[in-house]
C-alpha cells in the first residue's frame, strides 16, 4: 500500500523547522530588502512569501519585477539558497550570450529533468551539450530535413487535421481545440523525430500510452521546480512514493517505448547498410554512430521541445483572434486564394502578418514561461545585481511581455502591428522589423537559441492559415482562460469551441 504524501512529509524532519518559524511569523524580523523583493527572514529566507504565493508565482514575480527599478528581484529560500529573477533585456543578453559560459543549466536544474531527459541536448552542459548541438544544428540546416518536415506537415494537415475539424462541423458539437492541436503536434514531432506515426488525431482511439506517459512525466518533473525544499522530492524519489512513484512509472513507459522504436529502426535500417535516404532524426542520429541511450535521450528531448510548444502558441493565438476580429481579417487577407493543394513553402515565407500575430501571442503567453541557469562563478549583471556562485538565475519571458519598460504602456493589448516599423495595409507585403531576441527570448538566444525556431514558425503558419481559411472558430466561453506554466504552458480547461465552415473568400 502506498504511503500517503502527508504521512511522508511528517516523517521529514526539516519541515518541523519550517513550522516552528511559521508559527512565530509575527515575531520574526525580516532582513532589510528592497521594496521590490519579498520579505526575507533569518535562516528561512523568503519561504513564507513563496509558500503564500506558490499558486500564483507568475503574477507574484511579475508584480515584484514591476516595482523593481532594475526589473530584477532576488528571492532567498532556505539556508541561503538564492534565486535571481530578471525581466531586464540587458541582463538576459549577459546570461544567454555575453557571459554564456558562466551560466550553464547547472546540476540543480539538470537533476529536475535528468530522470526523463537523461543527457539529452536540452538537459546537458559543456562538451556533452556542445557535441549534440553541432550534430543537431547540422541536421536542422539540411534542406532534405526541411522538405521532409514540410511534407509531413502537409500530409498531417490535409489528411487528418482538416477532416477532424470538418467532422466537428458535421456533428455540430464542441471540440477542445487545444487537445486537437496537441495531438496534431505530437503526430508531427514523432514522425519527424522517430519516423513513427502514433496517429493521435484518430479521435476514435484512446490516447496512446506513450502520450499519457509524456504528459505525466512532464507535469511532475516541472512541479519539482516549484518545491520550496528540493530535498522533499529527492527523498520521495528515494523512497519511491507519491508523485515520484508515478513519475518513475511514466518515465519507464517513455524510455521503454522509445527504446523499442529505436531497436525496430535499427533492424529496419540494417545499421551497417546505406541510411542516406532515411530522413527522420532518429535515422540521422543512428547513422552518426551514437549509442542507443544517447540517441534515446536526444530524440526524447526533441519530442519534449516540439510536442506542446507550437500547439500552446497556436491555442492562445486562436483564442486571441476570437477577441480581435480585425486581426483575423488581416490574416485571412494574407492567405486569400489558397487552392486545393493548400499553402506552399513559398506562400509561408510571405506570411509576415501571421508571423507577427504568432509573436504577439507568444509575447503575452509564452510556451515556456521561464528558464533558469546556475552561476558557475561570482558575477555582476549589467544592472548591478551581484550574483554568487551557485545562485539560480532565471530570465522570465512571461514577465518580460508584461513590462511597460520593455513593451510600452500598451503592453497589455494584443497588437501584431508592434512587430512592424510601419502599420501594414491591406494588399501590401509588410516587412517585420528586427526585434532583439533578448527582449523576446521565447526561443532563448545566444549559443542555445532554439535550432527548430524556423521549423516551428513554418508549422504554426501552415496550420493557422489552413484552418482559418476553411473554418470559423467560436469559443464556447468568453471568459479569459487561465495560463498554467509547467514545462510547457497550457490553457486550463482547454479551448472548447464550435467549428463553422467559412464561406469561400
Unreliable parts: 6-12, 17-29
Number of strands: 11
Terminal-residue CA separation: 62 Å
- CATH top level is Mainly Alpha
Given the helix and strand composition, which structural class is it? alpha+beta
Radius of gyration in whole Å, from Cα?
24 Å
The dominant shape is: globular
Mean pLDDT: 86
Number of helical segments? 21
Strand order of the largest sheet: 1-2-7-4
CATH superfamily: Cytochrome P450
The total domain count is 1
The largest sheet, given as strand count, sense and whether it forms a barrel, is: 4 strands, mixed
CATH architecture: Orthogonal Bundle
Work out the strand percent: 5-15%
Helical coverage, percent range: 40-55%
Within the CATH hierarchy, at the fold level, what is the topology?
Answer: Cytochrome p450
Amino acid at each position: 500500500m502506498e504511503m500517503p504524501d502527508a504521512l511522508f512529509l511528517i516523517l521529514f524532519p526539516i519541515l518541523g523547522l519550517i513550522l516552528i518559524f511559521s508559527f512565530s511569523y509575527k515575531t520574526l524580523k525580516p532582513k532589510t530588502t528592497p521594496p521590490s523583493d519579498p520579505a526575507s527572514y533569518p535562516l528561512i529566507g523568503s519561504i513564507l512569501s513563496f509558500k503564500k504565493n506558490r499558486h500564483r508565482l507568475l503574477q507574484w514575480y511579475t508584480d515584484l519585477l514591476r516595482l523593481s527599478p532594475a526589473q530584477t528581484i532576488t528571492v532567498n529560500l532556505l539556508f541561503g539558497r538564492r534565486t535571481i529573477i530578471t525581466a531586464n533585456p540587458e541582463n538576459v543578453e549577459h546570461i544567454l550570450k555575453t557571459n554564456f559560459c558562466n551560466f550553464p543549466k547547472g546540476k540543480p536544474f539538470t537533476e529536475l529533468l535528468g530522470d526523463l531527459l537523461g543527457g539529452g541536448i536540452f538537459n546537458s552542459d559543456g562538451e556533452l551539450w556542445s557535441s549534440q548541438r553541432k550534430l543537431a544544428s547540422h541536421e536542422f540546416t539540411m534542406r532534405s530535413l526541411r522538405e521532409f518536415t514540410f511534407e509531413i506537415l502537409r500530409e498531417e494537415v490535409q489528411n487528418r487535421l482538416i477532416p477532424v475539424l470538418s467532422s466537428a462541423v458535421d456533428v455540430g458539437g464542441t471540440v477542445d481545440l487545444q487537445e486537437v492541436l496537441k495531438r496534431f503536434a505530437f503526430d508531427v514531432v514523432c514522425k519527424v523525430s522517430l519516423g513513427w506515426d502514433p496517429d493521435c488525431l484518430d479521435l476514435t482511439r484512446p490516447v496512446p500510452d506513450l502520450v499519457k506517459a509524456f504528459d505525466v512525466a512532464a507535469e511532475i518533473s516541472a512541479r519539482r521546480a516549484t518545491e520550496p525544499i528540493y530535498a522533499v522530492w529527492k527523498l520521495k524519489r528515494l523512497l519511491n512514493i507519491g508523485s515520484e512513484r508515478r513519475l518513475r512509472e511514466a518515465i519507464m513507459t517513455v524510455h521503454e517505448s522509445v527504446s523499442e522504436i529505436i531497436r525496430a529502426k535499427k533492424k529496419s535500417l540494417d545499421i551497417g547498410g546505406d541510411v542516406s535516404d532515411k530522413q527522420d532524426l532518429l535515422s540521422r542520429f543512428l547513422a552518426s554512430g551514437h549509442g542507443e541511450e544517447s540517441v534515446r535521450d536526444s530524440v526524447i528531448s526533441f519530442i519534449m521541445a516540439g510536442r506542446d510548444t507550437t500547439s500552446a502558441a497556436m491555442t492562445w493565438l486562436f483564442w486571441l483572434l476570437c477577441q480581435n476580429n480585425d486581426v483575423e481579417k488581416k490574416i485571412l487577407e494574407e492567405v486569400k486564394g489558397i487552392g486545393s493543394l493548400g499553402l506552399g513553402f513559398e506562400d509561408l515565407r510571405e506570411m509576415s502578418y501571421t508571423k507577427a500575430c504568432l509573436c504577439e501571442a507568444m509575447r503575452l503567453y509564452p510556451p515556456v514561461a521561464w528558464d533558469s541557469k546556475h552561476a558557475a562563478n561570482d558575477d555582476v549583471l549589467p544592472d548591478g545585481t551581484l550574483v554568487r556562485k551557485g545562485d539560480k538565475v532565471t530570465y522570465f519571458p512571461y514577465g518580460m511581455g508584461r513590462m511597460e519598460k520593455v513593451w510600452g504602456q500598451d503592453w497589455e493589448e494584443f497588437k501584431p502591428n508592434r512587430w512592424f516599423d510601419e502599420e501594414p495595409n491591406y494588399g501590401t507585403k509588410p516587412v517585420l522589423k528586427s526585434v532583439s531576441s533578448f527582449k523576446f527570448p521565447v526561443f532563448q538566444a545566444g549559443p542555445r537559441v532554439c535550432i527548430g525556431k524556423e521549423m516551428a514558425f513554418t508549422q504554426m503558419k501552415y496550420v493557422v492559415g489552413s484552418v482559418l481559411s476553411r473554418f470559423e472558430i467560436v469559443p464556447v466561453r468568453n471568459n479569459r482562460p487561465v495560463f498554467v506554466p509547467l514545462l510547457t504552458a497550457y490553457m486550463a480547461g482547454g479551448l472548447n469551441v464550435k467549428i463553422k465552415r467559412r464561406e469561400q473568400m
